[in-house]
Design goal:
The complex is a heterodimer of chains A (174) and B (645). With 174 residues, chain A is an alpha+beta fold. Chain A has two domains: 61 residues; 88 residues, 3-Layer(aba) Sandwich (Glutaredoxin), CATH 3.40.30. Chain A contains nine helices and four strands. In chain A, β3 and β4 form a beta hairpin. The longest helix of chain A has 13 residues. Chain A is elongated and about 50 Å long. Chain B is an alpha/beta fold and 645 residues long. Chain B folds into five domains: 108 residues, Glutaredoxin (3-Layer(aba) Sandwich); 209 residues, NADH-ubiquinone oxidoreductase 51kDa subunit (Rossmann fold, 3-Layer(aba) Sandwich), CATH 3.40.50; 84 residues, Ubiquitin-like (UB roll), CATH 3.10.20; 90 residues, de novo design (two linked rop proteins); 77 residues, 2-Layer Sandwich (Alpha-Beta Plaits). Helices cover 40% and strands 15% of the residues of chain B. Chain B has 23 helices and 19 strands. In chain B, the strands form five sheets. Chain B has a five-stranded mixed β-sheet with strand order 2-1-3-4-5, with helices on one face. In chain B, a hairpin with a 2-residue loop joins β18 and β19. Chain B is globular. The termini of chain B are far apart. The chains are: A alpha+beta (174), B alpha/beta (645). At the A-B interface, α2, α4, α5 and α6 of A face α2, β10, β14, α16 and α22 of B.
Chain lengths: 174, 645
């Protein structure tokens, strides 16, 4: 959903007004723009180019360096699967595989219905409670592969997972 | 408490008086108080639900009780933690407290006379209560010395009066009193070394910056805790933000820096929030801004959120990131202390280094140097995680042995498994094998063993951990995080990773190990920054201590820890399978067949070795087992047992 360009522009102007007009403000401004719109759209970057006098190439150069920035609209809920050391030795990789299977996507992708984003993160800093998965910033501690369906249905409703896995259920019933 | 220096302004003076009153009220309260550990880790363990339930219960029953949210006390495996104050009893710290338990404690301990000993970890104040031991005598606590973390879990991090009452900002006022030269001398005498990993003497860095020409100087607090497996800085900022900020004031005053930045990872929203709150409180107390406490020293602080790049933990990359550039390192010299942010002299200090400063100034270098070893003074925090009984954040005097940390504080390895190695220093560090557990934890000893102190991540590995897999894990991390500037790092890490991928897939060759070593050396020698220079460490230490395990992968084609999925196969024990069908229901590729109540079989052609069947098979049957090379896990165990008999 892309808002009318005018409204976009005035919101970006508001964000720019919060920071001193220098190069050092670029990353905080990009962070705020992403927080506002969910991602860095082409329109937003063009607008920043116009207002800040930094070329779009340069802006993309900086933005793509950092893992935080995304360039496509996010899903409704963001799942972050921690791949830190403590999570790794306690089965973090299996959890990621399991999440990918349930969601039918790979990490870095969004489910077709736009319900979930799946991201792998280096560390959420909750190592003592490993393995952890966070959904929309809430950390779920000491997750096992068995707990994943119930976590997903907490956010998407109980029927969502059923839809995604109907193929298998049918096999069992027959 | 010592009296305040004459130059302290009226506002701050009054705040100290108010702080004393508030703190005394908290200690002598007639009203019961619940201190709930609500840092990120506590919340992840369910502290949010505990708070909610507790508050609504208190309100519904119209009880007279106070609830205070505090930071992390450290023993994370006992989260959620609650300390309960009751006027006629010692304070008790309870562990693993859920919503039901907290109501039970409220009803039976606070309103009744049963102290709920079953959940008590220990008592925090003197007095006798049902034989509950002191919290400090708890095995996890007794070897710890909590100087940096002294307030964490005990004060409300969003209440500045709590910090002031605990001698807060006294170190900074002392620095103002004695002046920058003597402050530097004190830090030098204390022997404080950078806690970010490399252990560079703090005073020397400061000296370089002070000697550099130019009026404008910057101080940066590096809170971009990017090491996977580390959470010391997060805990300190969440539990006691003012301690870090006071450290910044002391450093900035000594350096003559008028502007400070805190570079904090965006993944730590609560820490950023706590910093924002604390900074505005500093301003109100007259501890930030122009001419602080009439000293002529002016200081401003800005928080910069990291945007997710591990390499930004490196000083020059961090500076580039604050300048709004791609976070790529620059060649040194010039060192940031001479030419850093916007080309001005800049000192970058780790969160914990700064957290040490208030107590050094307050108590003096002599007090500080009573802790630690000859070359490594003071205490250090470690994030204890992995395959260990008691995980958590611990603070110990430097020079303590690894054994003491793993077995005494950490309680050893769970489920009767054997210790294999301890990984220190994250992706820049290495694995120290079980037979080296007598090693003292100080900068020199760890470096000699091939690892590094690092910022304090300590991940314990047990016999179920494959060291080749761990080396691959760290390398895939650094390979992904390499900024790409230096070819040895960009290409070398990828080359090493592909060798490790082949070895763990059962396609290794004998020449691989020598090749690995050679590439590792090239990456070490040919990279500009710390990321590249240390990236081969996990591979080099595992090769040094666990060469046999690499060889088993290559020569025998088996993974002794049963981790490398391409080298193991899953089977169902015909004598134990009950035919419940649990495994076939979870198998994602439908590789398991079998009729109800009859033996199930895994089709090896279809199986993807995900392990879902193994984790699903009910423990009463435990019919799924793994095979790698010659022996199954079963047979291996039996063989081991046979040997010990």
């Amino acid at each position: 959903m892309i808002r009318p360009a005018k409204e976009n522009s005035s919101q970006i102007t508001d964000i720019l007004a919060r920071y001193p007009a220098n190069r050092g403000s670029l990353i905080p401004i990009l962070q705020d723009v992403q927080e506002k719109f969910g991602y860095l759209s082409e329109e937003a970057v063009e607008e920043l180019e116009r207002l800040m006098g930094i070329s779009a190439n340069e802006i993309y150069g900086v933005a793509t360096f950092y893992t935080q920035f995304r360039f496509s609209p996010p899903g409704q809920h963001t799942i972050r699967s921690c791949q830190g050391t403590a999570c790794h030795v306690r089965g973090g990789r299996q959890l990621l595989q399991e999440l990918q299977q349930h969601l039918g996507i790979k990490s870095g992708q969004t489910t077709e219905d736009g319900k979930f984003d799946l991201e792998r993160v280096a560390c959420l800093g909750c190592c003592a409670l490993a393995p952890v998965v966070s959904v929309d910033g809430k950390v779920h501690a000491q997750i096992t592969t068995k707990k994943i369906p119930s976590i997903l249905s907490q956010y998407a409703g109980p029927s969502w997972l059923g839809q995604a896995e109907t193929g298998k259920e049918d096999d069992e019933n027959t | 408490m010592t009296s305040l220096q004459p130059h302290v302004g009226r506002g701050l003076r009054q705040a100290f008086t108010e702080a004393q009153a508030q703190w005394r009220k908290l200690q002598d309260s007639e009203v019961p108080i619940f201190f709930v550990g609500a840092a990120t880790c506590g919340r992840a363990a369910g502290a949010g639900e505990v708070l909610q339930r507790l508050r609504s219960h208190i309100e519904a029953k119209k009880l007279n009780a106070q609830v205070v949210e505090v930071g992390c006390l450290g023993p994370c495996s006992f989260e959620p933690l609650v300390i309960v104050h009751k006027s006629d009893a010692p304070r008790i710290c309870y562990g693993n407290i859920g919503p039901d338990e907290i109501i039970h404690i409220l009803e039976n301990h606070v309103l009744g006379d049963d102290p709920c000993k079953q959940w008590a970890l220990g008592k925090m104040t003197p007095g006798e209560l049902n034989g509950i031991e002191d919290f400090d005598a708890h095995p996890m606590m007794r070897q710890q010395v909590r100087n940096i973390l002294r307030n964490c879990g005990l004060i409300d991090p969003e209440n500045p009066y709590h910090y002031l009452a605990r001698e807060g900002y006294r170190g900074f006022l002392q620095a103002l009193e004695i002046g920058p030269d003597k402050t530097l001398e004190e830090v030098k005498a204390a022997g404080l070394r950078g806690r970010g990993g490399a252990g560079f003497p703090t005073w020397r860095k400061w000296q370089f910056c002070r000697n550099a020409s130019g009026q404008t100087k910057y101080l940066i607090c590096n809170a971009d805790e990017g090491d996977p497996g580390a959470f010391m800085n997060r805990s300190l900022i969440e539990g006691d933000p003012h301690a870090v900020l006071e450290g910044m004031l002391i450093a900035a005053f000594t350096l003559g820096a008028s502007q400070g930045y805190i570079y904090c990872r965006a993944e730590y929203p609560l820490a950023i929030h706590r910093l924002q709150v604390a900074i505005s409180q500093m301003r109100e107390l007259g501890l930030l801004g122009e001419n602080i406490q009439g000293s002529g020293f002016s200081f401003e602080l800005t928080i910069k959120k990291g945007a997710g790049a591990f390499v930004c933990g490196e000083e020059t990359a961090l500076i580039a990131s604050i300048e709004g550039q791609r976070g790529m390192p620059q060649p040194r010299p010039p060192f940031p202390a001479v030419s850093g942010l916007w080309g001005r002299p800049t000192v970058i200090q780790n969160v914990e280094t700064l957290g040490n400063l208030p107590s050094i100034l307050r108590n003096g270098a002599d007090w500080y140097t009573q802790y630690g070893s000859e070359s490594s003074k003071g205490t250090k925090t470690f994030a204890l995680a992995g395959k260990i009984e008691r995980t958590g954040l611990v603070e110990v005097p430097l020079g303590i042995t690894l054994k003491d940390i793993v077995y005494d504080i950490g309680g050893g390895i769970p489920a009767g498994k054997a210790l294999k190695a301890v990984q220190t220093g994250g992706p820049s560090g290495g694995c120290i094998p079980a037979e080296k557990m007598d090693l003292p934890v100080d900068y020199e000893s760890l470096t000699k063993a091939g690892s590094i102190m690092g910022s304090g991540g300590m991940v314990v590995l047990d016999e179920d951990t494959c060291v080749v897999d761990i080396a691959k894990y760290f390398l895939s991390f650094t390979q992904e995080e390499s900024c790409g500037k230096c070819a040895p790092c960009r290409v070398g890490t990828r080359a090493m990773l592909s060798i490790l991928e082949r070895i763990t897939a059962g396609e290794g060759e004998t020449a691989d190990l020598d090749n690995l070593k050679e590439i590792a050396q090239t990456v070490k020698d040919g990279s500009l920054c710390g990321l590249g220079q240390t990236a081969p460490n996990p591979v080099l230490t595992t090769l040094r201590y666990f060469r046999e395990e690499y060889e088993e992968h290559i020569d025998k084609g088996w993974c002794p820890a049963f981790v490398c999925s391409r080298m193991i196969s899953y089977h169902i024990d015909r004598d134990r399978c009950s035919g419940c069908g649990a495994c076939s229901r979870v198998c994602p590729v439908e590789a398991i067949s079998g009729e109800k109540k009859k033996l199930h079989v895994i089709d090896q052609e279809i199986c993807i070795q995900c392990g879902a069947c193994l984790s699903t098979c009910p423990p009463v049957y435990a019919a799924v087992y793994r095979r790698s090379g010659e022996l199954t896990r079963y047979e291996q165990r039996k063989e081991k047992k046979g040997k010990t008999k």
